[in-house]
């Protein structure tokens, strides 16, 4: 693609749809080529649901991010087309079938020698493939959550007071109010005190506890008397109230030195 404008993206997607058919959903980020009127009209014309990930949350579009890494690694090879053929014919470790088998129902012939019987059409059992894929995703999610000590966050309701913070910010410093749920999972529409309407992921929002109007904190209902500090008697002089500290006794005339307690200090004899 020479450019990433909406017209070029729509043209590339039309070519894919003409070969493989129209999908039910298309997941993308919030780039300008996807968040424009031209792409919305294209989604309405080809009857698919366009889902965008939460802003400032690239993990919500992890499949596309991983696909970009695979494509970059293929393009770095000496022969990208040969590398693409090898990728399409390599069985997935989780499901045991290759992308070509899932698409065409047979293995494709590559530069590696193989038997003719291996190239015969043989559709894999899709129920087994989907079950293996789901089990592997659950296993990876379990170990990832255990490694990072993640926990499910409670849902927010419209009208809840929250604080917003992005990943590059250090403190929760943007107060806002939840306006409602977004069309995508774990995403909310919030309104800041300045009147701006933003879309944020749930992990970027921190709920604030609100006090109801008919109740008051216990400290306000039953105030405790503050302890009084005893005042000093003005008749008592400050000089007599404080203990008198004696100064260090001066050395004697014969050179002897006494300690604070009055004990005679004996000098240490050095080795000769």
TrEMBL record:
InterPro entries: Integrase_cat-core (IPR001584), Retrovirus_Pol_polyprotein (IPR050951), RNaseH-like_sf (IPR012337), RNaseH_sf (IPR036397). It comes from the Eukaryota. Residues 1-166 form the Integrase catalytic domain. GO terms for biological process: DNA integration. GO terms for molecular function: nucleic acid binding. Residues 209-235, 248-272 are annotated as: Disordered. This is Integrase catalytic domain-containing protein.
């Amino acid at each position: 693609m020479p450019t990433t404008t909406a017209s070029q993206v729509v043209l590339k997607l039309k070519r894919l749809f003409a070969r493989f058919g129209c999908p039910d959903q298309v997941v993308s980020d919030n780039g300008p080529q996807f968040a424009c009127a031209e792409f919305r009209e294209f989604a309405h014309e080809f009857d698919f649901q366009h889902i965008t990930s939460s802003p400032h949350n690239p993990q919500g579009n992890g499949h596309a991010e991983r696909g970009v890494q695979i494509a970059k690694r293929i393009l770095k090879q000496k022969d990208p087309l040969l590398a693409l053929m090898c990728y399409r014919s390599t069985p997935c470790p989780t499901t045991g079938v290759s992308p070509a088998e899932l698409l065409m129902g047979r293995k494709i012939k590559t530069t590696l020698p193989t038997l003719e019987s291996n190239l015969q059409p043989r559709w894999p059992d899709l129920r087994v493939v989907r079950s293996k894929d789901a089990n592997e995703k659950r296993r990876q999610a379990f170990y990832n959550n255990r490694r990072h000590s993640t926990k499910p966050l409670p849902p927010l309701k419209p009208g809840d007071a929250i604080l917003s913070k992005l990943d590059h910010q250090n403190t929760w410093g943007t107060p806002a109010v939840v306006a409602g749920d977004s069309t995508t999972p774990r995403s909310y529409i919030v309104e800041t005190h300045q009147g701006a309407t933003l879309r944020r992921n749930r992990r970027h929002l921190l709920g604030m506890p609100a006090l109801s109007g008919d109740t008051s904190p216990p400290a306000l209902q039953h105030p405790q008397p503050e302890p009084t500090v005893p005042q000093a008697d003005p008749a008592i002089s400050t000089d007599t109230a404080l203990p008198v500290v004696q100064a260090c006794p001066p050395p004697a005339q014969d050179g002897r030195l006494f300690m604070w307690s009055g004990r005679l200090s004996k000098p240490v004899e050095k080795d000769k």
